[in-house]
Amino acid sequence: MKYSIQLLAIGALGFGLAACGGNNAVSTVPVPSAGGVTQYKQIELLSRPAVKELFEKFVDHQTTNAAEPYADTTLQGEIAAFTDALRPPNAGLGSDYGHALAGVLYPNWITADISQTGAAAYLGNETGGATSTTHSTFGGRAVTDDVIDISLGAVFGHTLASLHLQPEDNEENNCLTTDNVAINATQVPTGTFPYLASPH
What we know:
Strand order of the largest sheet: 1-4
Shape: globular
Oligomer: single chain
Distance between the termini: 38 Å
Radius of gyration: 18 Å
Structural class: alpha+beta
Number of helices: 7
Strand content: 5-15%
């Protein structure tokens, strides 16, 4: 049976907000303090790292933070529109990367198919195992998964073509398929945060 595990990344975004010049991009929730003064904590609906940052207009973050992760037409539409600008639909080839990519990166949750016995693999379920070195379709997210490179490969690389989800359009941009920050593969994951050594 396949279950969608909805994970919300909740954290302080002060440095990012300062850089963007405002705090209208995140939801704020009141948190009563012991002294009776209400404080506000900022949250961001961010199950898939880098997806909102790459595709979404900054002014739309508040809209998507307040939306259900499976009923967010703003994010879904902006994934398609951004991709169509880079890899335009081609009726002759039968390609529509924007629509196909929105199907892979949306809804804004992480899916895990617990009927599978393979290891966790980010986007493994959505891509039929293409993002896993062992071709695992379990999904989820392993602590050693390079989720940024996996996402960038789907957007700018040939992930969808290799799956035959889309025909080859020769519009790959291999300069953008990695952030060039590798995990420290020599470190065995530990039971305490941050679980791995610093990246290289």
